[in-house]
Write a structure and sequence with these properties.
The structure is a homodimer of 700-residue chains. Chain A is flat and about 95 Å long. The first copy, chain A, folds into four domains: 5-292, Succinyl-CoA synthetase domains (Rossmann fold); 297-455, Rossmann fold, CATH 3.40.50.261; 469-581, ATP-grasp fold, A domain (Dna Ligase, domain 1), CATH 3.30.1490.20; 588-699, D-amino Acid Aminotransferase, Chain A, domain 1 (2-Layer Sandwich), CATH 3.30.470. Chain A has 24 helices and 30 strands. Chains A and B meet through helix 5, helix 8, helix 11, strand 16 and helix 16 of A and helix 5, helix 8, helix 11, strand 16 and helix 16 of B. Chains A, B: Pfam families: ATP-grasp_5, CoA_binding_2, Ligase_CoA_2, Succ_CoA_lig. Chains A, B: Keywords: ATP-binding, Ligase, Nucleotide-binding. Chains A, B: This is Acyl-CoA synthetase.
Chain lengths: 700, 700
């Protein structure tokens, strides 16, 4: 569905009909009306209930048809069997947007699913923006609109939140209340029959009241659309998300929750990375980061200055920095001189700057003034433990004063509870994020620096790779015609050639003598590989011999390979063997693969060959089409990358050659959604270049 | 130093002298006196100050010599230059224990270090229990003793805390106050000139008031002693620790903090594992776990039942369970029947049991009653979000009621802030740990289950391995005599034989013709390996040829190897080559190694051969001597273990053969602390057995 621009009738309605408004204070149809009234919404509210009368001093309209004017937004709080009819009446009455609070649809099984499909169809036909069903509602603090069934009231602020879980929303509102975090918009997506996370994201991206977007998702409906939208939004403001159902246990729980399929975690994580979304794996981090992004500028470098009155937390901060890839900046000589003068002799003027336990606010102030001017650091973290000498409120004030003139972001970590709380509250009011432990503060700073990197990255270059698409198309058609789903080797190699992948010269031969003749033509050394339509992996039958140097070697290998294959897989018909020129002998072996993810489309993966990559999960993923930046990232992201870069004095391999292959495969995946899976395994790569020695293609 | 039994005069003094007591309320010499008085200590307190008079209504003694009776404990709060003299006077006066609050010693450089050494020497000679210097003091809530300079007062409880960071203590006291966590003992270790973490741990292990011990350490002084002590203590009660300075950045910060050397992180982590200590990597987890251990019994299985009124948090809980290795138990049929009856149709009766957003307390109660009786789960986690229908206090009460008769541990996670706080407070008072997010709750449950596994593990069997120690000793002596630090191959193999390691038959030969003759004697196939005292690794010069099948192969290989070595390392003298019988060809290659850690002694490591293990850090460590359990753990702990167990239908390798080799190496490391490093690389292992094909030994 193409929703109206910015979901305007949903977020900024001039009038609202509450269908199912109730007099009974415990009913949702009363709670939502009460929220609308008390939050100070200034448009017109029409409670609709056949009983008529008055609720909360508002005159009740006894049917939708009797509404005096078409409302912008209709909210439905009815038993599920009455929802569709109410939607139809609202459509008749010309509403622009409908929010369905009622539950009992897709999440409850087949009947509910079908009902929900009818609602979605109706909304589509009538061009109505539909939120829900099974939504907790929405909030727009800018116009005092609280159309939710939650009990806590958010204050106005610059964070927008959207969530696929309704009950979670109520927890978050309550939490935000206690932490004096304010929201701009608040949307409970519900079952997403109408508008999706991408629609909401787009709208929030354009919302001038929103500085940071945070979201909770269990599933993504149209992955490619979401990716495109998110890419645009993250150029404008940070998007922080948590995706639940990332493990098998979680995915099982998800499908019984909203009836959605959790989808592949690697695909969504790749999508988030490519879209510049900051993904976190727990709720606490979601809020820790939101607070930092909402209140402080982005650090423009990875160097952090830590000021502390306690050595221990300073060390923990240093540990945490290294874990997330931040550095502790060495202060400039000028700063060192200032600190030497300002601090007692036993203080540590290097970073972490330990101004020791008897520090009062003035010592913090002098230190902060020196550090604020030091260009060696890009962000400041101030740690305080409530020692006997600590002046907590005064220190908070010193931090606030420093922040006023300092262009770097400043963060605080006040450790403790009741004694430090006046300082913490003062800091939070002044927009300095204050954490209870060093680790979350440093995680937040690291995320902000990552986002800075995203915003300042080179303009993304999408590459359209040269290829003979027609030839590949014809080859696939031909294969499909003869009823195969996996392409025979020769056809796979034709497609490789069409995409200009570097393949070795290869001959398919039927006898050992043919093999010897082929080897002579190709030139020694050669490789010999068994071919059978019944084998999914040659290594299972030990069906490969490498580096054969002579006719005798080839004959011996032929005998060894074919007899091993027959012994291990008596059911497999042996077509023959391939004779190939050998690739570089001391090369690294890598694997390039793509599959089609049901939610996100073509998913390209990269790893070193060998069983360890899979066992250790050292595989990187990106969604096609890949940009130049993506291919560089996917190669460098695997933990084994040092082996390609040249560990222990070895020569680095030709990374550009790998990147070209990745781009070709990305192009192939994009050109042919009906190639279900393609695998180059292995690709040999050394300092000179790369060679694709085997390719498998499966069509859908 | 051997401290007195249970540090009795320190924790339970009948009388205390405060040397450096002060009238000025801002001075530490006043704060500590004031803490002693107000905490309700009932022994005698002697303020000592040459000025005499009265402080806080106590008569001041004007010198240590003038004390009417020898106090059990002397506390020194003087400028550092006066500390040693005061200690001498206290020793004259026959004190049993001294706590030095004053700072300015080891942590400030050489002068301070030497002063501290004199203090330590004095304490040792006079058999005085010395805490500090640079200590914040200590607390024993059992007798109302608060001998600290911190400002918050801990309530009585069952958690004991010790810390190497003083200022951190003040943060923790303040934090505990806010969370109504009580302490039994509280010790700030300071610079550890006298008693160490091991002494304190031993004393807390025997303390009947202490149920859980938590600690913060930056360095461990005598690793083996600490390990032995901790092993005994963890049999009695859980010990949870955080070690700071685990990264390079952190270690640098540590050495400038307490002047201690952080030491190798892998060694301390191995020690913690072998001692049954639960290691956490951030402060928040330290407290999250302490709370759980202090209040709930241990879960006796990995199966968790999750009850929730909100799907989203249920999914996050499921994700978190899988991440830490807990299972979501499938409820028994009986429970499913009960739940079907008790819950509305759209609830999910499987685990997580989602009783949906309109649940009130009675629905929680019915569900909990069913789950409490179900033997399929070993622990229960109750999630609540403050929905419009949630009855927060009543739900808390239902959980408390269930816990009264339920033998399984019960944990709660109430999400939100102000609305849920009355429920959270009620739960905490009743001893039900209540968290703000699902993840920390599940981490705590997982840690408790790990501790259950530790307590119920089979009795640890230390293995003394058969070996010819005399022969090995003689070989090492001989090598040392000729001035070598690395043993020549033949000598290394002699030691391998003395420890009954499975080594291949090997001949050292000088010419290619000798090699052919040796190969004939050993039987083909053979391996050929270059020997030179100047090469630290054969792979650098490509100096190994494997699987040689014929005299021609041997001659070719000889030429290839020696010429490559000469070309790549013209400076290396080539002694000759080794001819060896080949190990199994399709074997996995593993590496067994030990080094001597300066703090913890012999450290054995295990990994797969190949560059990936190092690059990916997939190496496991344990301290020698290894128990049978240790060798099983060290082999199974590497992430690549599936490759040894037989991934993808392969036969598993002979794990017992690897374990025997590890035990032999552990024995060797224990027998010879002057073997600085030993490496078996590679050890070939297949389904049949293992073969050590190369061994390098360096002596110190």
């Amino acid at each position: 569905m193409q929703p109206e621009a910015h979901l305007n009738s949903l977020f900024n309605p001039n009038s609202i009909a509450v269908v199912g408004a109730s007099r009974s204070p415990l009913k949702l149809g009363h709670i939502i009306l009460s929220n609308l009234v008390t939050a100070g919404y200034r448009g017109t509210i029409y409670p609709v209930n056949p009983a008529g009368g008055e609720i909360l001093d508002l005159p009740v309209i006894n049917s939708i048809a009797a509404l005096p004017k078409p409302p912008d937004l209709g909210i439905i709080v009815l038993p599920r069997k009455q929802v569709l009819a109410a939607m139809e009446e609202l459509a008749e009455a010309n509403v622009s947007a409908i929010c369905v609070i009622s539950a009992g649809f897709r999440e409850t099984g087949r009947d509910g699913f079908e009902l929900e499909m009818e609602m979605a169809e109706l909304a589509r036909k009538k061009k109505i923006t539909l939120l829900g069903p099974n939504s907790l509602g929405l909030i727009n603090t800018t116009i005092g609109l609280d159309a939710t069934i939650a009990q806590a009231k958010p204050t106005k602020g610059s964070i927008a939140f959207f969530s696929q879980s309704g009950a979670l929303c109520s927890a978050i509102l309550d939490w935000a209340d206690g932490e004096s975090i304010g929201f701009s918009k608040f949307v409970s997506l519900g079952n997403k029959a109408g508008i999706s996370e991408a629609d909401v994201l787009e709208s929030l991206g354009d919302d001038p009241e929103t500085k940071v977007i945070i979201g909770y998702l269990e599933s993504v409906d149209d992955g490619q659309n979401f990716l495109q939208t998110a890419r645009i939004v993250t150029e404008k403001k940070p998007v922080i998300m948590i995706k639940a159902g990332t493990t098998q246990a979680g995915a099982r729980a998800t499908s019984s929750h909203t009836g959605s399929i959790a989808g592949s975690h690697v695909a969504s994580t790749a999508a988030f990375k490519q879209a510049g979304i900051i993904e976190v794996d727990n709720l606490e981090s979601l809020f820790d980061l939101a607070r930092a992004f909402a209140k402080q500028p982005l650090p423009e470098g990875p160097n952090l200055a830590v000021v502390t009155n306690s050595g221990g937390p300073g060390i923990l901060a240093a540990d945490a920095c290294e874990a997330v890839g931040l550095n502790l900046a060495r202060p400039s000589q000028e700063t060192l001189d200032k600190l030497t003068q300002a601090l007692p002799p036993f203080a540590s003027i290097y970073n972490p700057i330990d101004i020791i336990g008897d520090a009062r606010a003035d010592r913090y102030k002098a230190t902060l003034e020196a550090v604020a001017e030091d260009t060696m650091s890009s962000a400041i973290l101030v740690l305080l433990t409530p020692t006997a000498s600590a002046e907590i409120v005064e220190t908070a004030q010193a931090i606030i004063d420093t922040a006023k003139t300092c262009e770097k972001p400043i963060f605080a970590c006040f450790m403790g509870d009741q004694r430090i709380s006046p300082g913490r509250d003062l800091l939070r009011e002044a927009g300095i994020p204050c954490y209870g432990y060093p680790e979350p503060a440093i995680q937040a700073i690291a995320a902000m620096y990552t986002h800075y990197g995203w915003k300042t990255r080179p303009y993304p270059v999408e590459v359209c790779f040269r290829r003979d698409k027609g030839k590949a198309e014809w080859t696939i058609k031909k294969t499909r015609k003869i009823g195969l789903s996996e392409l025979p080797f020769a056809e796979a190699m034709d497609i490789a050639a069409a995409y200009e992948l570097p393949v070795p010269e290869t001959r398919l031969v039927r006898t050992s003598e043919q093999a010897v003749r082929a080897a002579k033509k190709l030139g020694y050394p050669v490789a010999l590989k068994v071919v059978s339509p019944h084998l999914s992996s040659r290594s299972d039958v030990d069906g490969v011999a490498l580096n054969l140097q002579s006719p005798r070697d080839v004959r011996d290998a032929w005998l060894a390979i074919t007899s091993r294959t027959q012994r291990k897989r008596p059911d497999a018909y042996i077509t023959g063997c391939l004779v190939q020129t050998m690739g570089p002998v001391k090369a690294r072996e890598v694997i390039v693969r793509f599959t089609q993810d049901p939610q996100f489309g073509p998913l390209v993966s990269f790893c070193l060959a060998g069983p360890s990559s899979e066992v250790l999960g050292d595989i990187s993923y990106r969604l096609a089409p890949l940009t130049l930046q993506d291919v560089q990232d996917i190669v460098r992201e695997i933990k084994s990358f040092p082996l390609l870069r040249g560990a222990r004095g070895e020569e680095p391999v030709n990374l550009a050659a790998i990147e070209d292959i990745l781009l070709s495969m990305s192009q192939m995946a994009t050109d042919f959604p009906d190639i279900r899976e393609a695998e180059l395994n292995p690709v040999l790569v050394d300092a000179e270049g790369a060679l694709v020695t085997d390719m498998r293609l499966t069509i859908g």
